[in-house]
Amino acid sequence: MQEIPKDTLTLAQQGDIRAFEDIYRTSSGFVYTLALRVTNNRQDAEEVAQDVFLKVYKNIRKFRFESTFKTWIYRITTNTAINAAIRRGRRAMREIEYNDNIQHTHGYEPQQEKIEKDEKEQIIKSMLETLNPKQRSCLVLRDIEGLSYEEISRTLKININTVRSRLKRARESLLALRKKGVIKNVL
């Protein structure tokens, strides 16, 4: 996600709707993708994205530039997505939707490459589904989004050792599945 200029954020804090629209346009794809990776469900991700932007709109005045806007929206998105995943888990048994795409592709891709890419995305999605939402969010933020342990700690407002242990448990869980032959090496 591109960094949003400070003047745009300041205008949004003052109630400028166009500035908020700029924020939305710049970060909506990122928010949706992150929410999808954490919830592993397209409909939940859409609802999370809506909730996130309602929260951002209502709380933009509280943003104090103590962290980057990207870190702030990571935290809101991840926490909202974790809560949605937990609620969904309590309501019904999890189901994996194999026909959903993780990302919308743009442009031309040779058919074989697209098929291979879709297969890898489905495997990754299935692997992430095996993890609990807290482990999944740490793994997504670290291995897919590339955040440092410190950034994950600040984003999720958890101790850095908790980040390390969640990542370790998530990786051990995936490794165990791989050893059992349930999943194969994707990357």
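The record above closes out task 2.4. Task 2.5 opens with a second protein, given below.
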Amino acid sequence: MKKLIVFFVLMFIPLIVSAAQDTNKVQYRKITNNSFIPGEVLEYEINYGFVTAGYASVSVNPQFTEINGRKCYLVEVTAKSAPGFEFIYKFRQTYKCYLDAEGIFTWLVDQDKLEGNRAEKIKMEFQHLPENSKVTRTEDRDGNIKTKDIPIDMYSLDDIGTYFYARTLDFTNKQVGETSIFPYVTKDEKRDLGIKFLGREDTDVPAGEFKCIVVQPMLREAALASKVDDIFVWLTDDEYKMPVKIQMKIIIGSIKVELKSYSGLAGPLKTKID
């Protein structure tokens, strides 16, 4: 019971903690973002081979949120297994990521997931300072609570933040094979993550056919990937760079996440092929 009380105190204490980091004294970067806006909703289908394994939704809350005195996007990701797939593998996940609206970097992550019979809650609080950036990671797995401070590079991103930051990159004059590098943190370590430009191609998904750019997240490791270059992402070839498809090879077979529907985009979509 004591551990449970400690966990909920950590989860729900107000996040305006100026004593821990005085954001008013830091000149944070500014990133031009014409790619996504509050109110965007993307719905996906998760396929394992020819089987529909589940569904996912990625939405940007219609209202901005304030974290540490900074205006933030609240990105909410939900995923769940399809009823017909649960006898193979059952999963539920809610993931909330708070991204700085001006600098497109992560301030806070709240994650609640169930995989099989294992329940886990994760909270990651980011501190971005020129000389002392860190993330405090609190993990509750079946009542076993662990908290750890992890040194990171300033402007480090979480898993979801990387996709939204990648949407702000300009691929117009990128050469095939060119890679953009930025700081990234996952689990209990910091990394440099590369987004490699692979070229352009049309792709057909349940939401329609789209002109896309293809990029490859260059991870040092991935929990399900059989090797580091087995993840590919298709983004619309326009200023919105809407994620249309993600494909990942795993040890047995492959997983595809394909766009079913979209709404609330930053402007008219011209890359859909009629």
